[in-house]
Amino acid sequence: MRRKANKHNRDVQFEVGEHVYVRIQPYRLRTLAKRSNEKLSPRFYGPFKIVEKVGVVAYRLDLPPSARVHPVFHISVLKKSVQTGFVTLTIPPALTEQLEL
């Protein structure tokens, strides 16, 4: 049973200074702007630079100040960036109380 469960685990380590993409699910985070169709929203945002390693499986990222998301992410939601030229897909702005962007 353990072998079957561990088959899907990935052994990934990141270094401070590397760039990673973050998988953010907009339907779970209410601070992200609503889209007309969440199914078509991007799955990964970034790339963002790793600032420090927090514990064994968590990393603090250098997010823009406009992002209203906690900057520490579990390793399971990070994906290594292999590009040399970066095109950053920013985290969408939060909705105001009047539901305007």
From TrEMBL:
Source taxon at top rank: Eukaryota
A Pfam family reported for this protein in Swiss-Prot or TrEMBL: SH3_Tf2-1
Domain Tf2-1-like SH3-like: residue ranges: 17-81
PANTHER family: CHROMO DOMAIN-CONTAINING PROTEIN, OS04G0603800 PROTEIN
Protein name: Tf2-1-like SH3-like domain-containing protein
Protein source organism: Acacia crassicarpa (northern wattle)
